[in-house]
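#struct-queue
[09:14] JT: dropping the first one here, sequence first, then the C-alpha cells:
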Amino acid sequence: MAQTPWGEIPVSDSHVHFFSYPFYEALAQQKKVAGPAQIGALLDWEIPPIDPVALAQKWVSAMDAKHVQRAALIASVPGDEASVAAAVSAYPDRFYGYFMFDPTQPDALDRMRKASADAHLHCLCLFPAMHTYAVTDARLVPILELASDTHMAVFVHCGALSVGVRKKLGLPSQFNLKYSNPLDLHPVALHFPQVQFVIPHFGAGMLRETLMLADLCSNVFLDTSSSNHWMAYEGLDLRTVYRRCLEVVGPARLLFGTDSSFFPRGWHEAIFDQHVKALYELGIEEEQVRQVLHANLEKLHAKRKERLG
C-alpha cells in the first residue's frame, strides 16, 4: 500500500518499459557499437543481465521500495515476448505481460497465435506511427480476432511519438504521425467490441480526439503515463487534463501509469507524486482514486486471467 492524501491505497502501474538485454542488443546494432555494454556507457544506464528474470527481480525490489503492488511490463522491441513472459512467469502476482507487436512482419500472425495462448502475456502493443501502417489495415483483422477470442487487451499508441533513448543516442526516429490519429481507431473499436483498447499518455497531444473516441466507444481506456510533455501543445496542465477525462470518460476507464523504464532510476516516483497531487487538488473521492491507481488495471485483465489462469 502506498501512502496518499486519502490514506493507504494499493498502486498498480499500467505502463513500465521492460528494457531487457535484447532491447539493448537492438540499440547496439542500430548504433553500430560492439554491444550493450557500450550502450550503457553512452547512456550512463545499467545494462541488465541476459536472464530476464534477474531484471524482473530488480523491478520487484524497486516496486517494493515504493509500495507498488503490480506493474504492466512492456517488451519494448518487437519480437521480445519471451522476456516479459519469463518475468511474469517468475512473478505472476506482480506483473502483467505486454509486448510490442509489428503486424507488418511476415510472421506476425504466427507470433500472435503463440502469444495469445500464453497465459503470461496480457496485452499486445501497437505503434502505427513507428511501424508505418494504419490501424485499419486488413492485416490487423485476424490479429484482433485472436485478441477478442482470448480477451487480450490491445494498446495503441496515438499522437506524438518520441523515444527518449533514441534521442540520447542520436538515433533517427523516422515515425509517421499520419498514422497517429485516435479517431482512426473508431471503426476498429466498434467492430471489435469485446477487445479492450488502451490509448497511452491521454492520446499524447490528441486529447480532444481521444476523448471523442472514448466517449463513443466504451471499450476504450486511457493510460495516464509519462511526463505528458504534449500538454504544452494545448496550454494544459495535468489537473485540467484529469478533470476533462473524468468528465467525459469517468474514473472507471483511466489507468494510472508512469512510463518508468531504466535503471538506476527504476520506478519513476516523481510521476506518481504529480498525478496524486493533481487528483487531490480536484477533490476526487477515495473510491475513484482507488479505481484509477489500482482497480481498473486489475479489471482490464480479469477475463483473460480467468480464461488462461
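[09:21] JT: and here's the second one, same format:
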Amino acid sequence: MNLKTTICLGLGTNIGDRKDNLTRAIEKLSLAFGKCQAASSFIETEPWGFESSNSFLNCAVMFKTELSPLQVLDATEEIERELGRTVKSDGRIYHDRIIDIDILLYGREIVKEERLTVPHPLMHKRMFVLQPLAEISPDAIHPVLGKSIKELLEELREQ
C-alpha cells in the first residue's frame, strides 16, 4: 500500500458564478482525491499579473492522495476542462478564467518537470495564495525556501 501524500491546491475564479465555480471544483476534486481534509474560506482579490474588471474569488484546499504529482496535475487539468476552462495561461500571460487549480504543495517534495513545478514557483509572492493557505496549513514548510506558510505570509505583508 502506498503512503498518502498531503497536497495543497490553490483555486481561483473570476468569471461566472464564482462561488458556485469554487464549490463545484471542490466537489470534483473530492471525487478525484477523496475527502477534502481542509478548505479555507473564499476570499475576494484583485487580478494579479493582468488587467481585468472582474475580481477573483480564491481559496485553498487540502487532500491526501496516492497519486503522483503528474497524475494530480492531469486530474486538476481535467477538472478545469470539465468546468469550462478552455485556455491555460501560457508564458505568464494571464486571462480571465472560470476556474484555475494550482498545485501549491505536494508534501515536502520538490518537483521540476517540463509540465509541473512544485512548490508553485510564485506562491510566496502572492497574497491570494498565502492567505487562504495559511488558514488551512500555517505550519506547512515551503520545501525550497525552508519557511512556514505563516512566515511567508508575514514577510509578504511587511513588504
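[09:30] RK: nice, looked through the second one.
[09:31] RK: The first helix runs from residue 18 to 33.
[09:31] JT: good to know. The first strand starts at residue 5 and ends at 13.
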